Amino acid sequence: xxxxxxxxxxxxxxxxxxxxxxxxKVYLPVAGRRVVAWSLDAFAAAPGTGVLVLxxxxxxxxxxxxxxxxxxxxxxxxAGGPTRQASELNALRHLAPRIADGTVxxxxxxxxxxxxxxxxxxxxxxxxxxxxxxxVPGLAADDVVSMAGPDTVAGPLPGAIRVQTPQGFRARPLxxxxxxxxxxxxxxxxxxxxxxxxxxxPVRWVPGSAENVKITYPHDLAVAERFLLR
Length: 230
Ligand SMILES: C[C@](O)(CO)[C@H](O)COP(=O)(O)O
Prior knowledge:
Blueprint: E1 5-12, E2 29-30, E3 33-34, H1 35-45, E4 49-56, H2 61-69, E5 76-79, H3 84-100, E6 104-111, H4 119-132, E7 134-140, E8 146-148, E9 153-156, E10 161-163, E11 167-170, H5 171-183, H6 191-198, E12 204-207, H7 218-229
Parallel strand pairs: 1-4, 1-6, 4-5, 7-12
Antiparallel strand pairs: 2-3, 6-11, 7-10, 7-11, 8-9
Helix pairs in contact: 3-5, 5-6
Bound molecules: the ligand C[C@](O)(CO)[C@H](O)COP(=O)(O)O.
Protein name: 2-C-methyl-D-erythritol 4-phosphate cytidylyltransferase
InterPro entries: IspD/TarI, IspD/TarI_cytidylyltransf_bact, Nucleotide-diphossugar_trans
Keywords: Nucleotidyltransferase, Transferase
């Protein structure tokens, strides 16, 4: 019988303009390494993700090569597209032969800009993905989350959670959903938004981590550095 594994897909093909740096934010240094090196390392340490893919902007290829050369496991580099949706699709098409033959049974997609993800969270998402088909990490909001009008609030959104990555899905329905989304020109905010629209898989949530911050603004780098050096 053929062995199946999960694939970790780390997305590093965004522009990251909000951080205000000349360099793609995932290659900025934090706690002595580049941001994306921390993210990839967590996947390398997680049991069960036997395939690792890094999705890049072609112009970042020399930096990406430098990062993957220092990792303890092989990383497959794939060129991203103009949107997150297109980059995810490129990664899934790259994996398509292994998805078709069952070698890759699940795919976990992760923001390269979340360097504090822990192998334990990756494992929790993978376990729930294998059980139910789809899983994301979520954090209950500490503050009230309200719908905002132009200058008023329209009441709390009950049960709101903050969604993080990695987001995991069974590989075959994931690829099928992304192909259908591409045919219909759909642009999602994250993997779950595409799956909610184009698949019948439930998207479960597992407890995320307050430390699993996303580098979006300059101050996020300082926060991440403090956590990583601890
Ligand atoms: C996927 C995500 O991390 C969920 O919170 C988030 O949507 C990514 O946002 P970005 O603007 O693409 O960094």
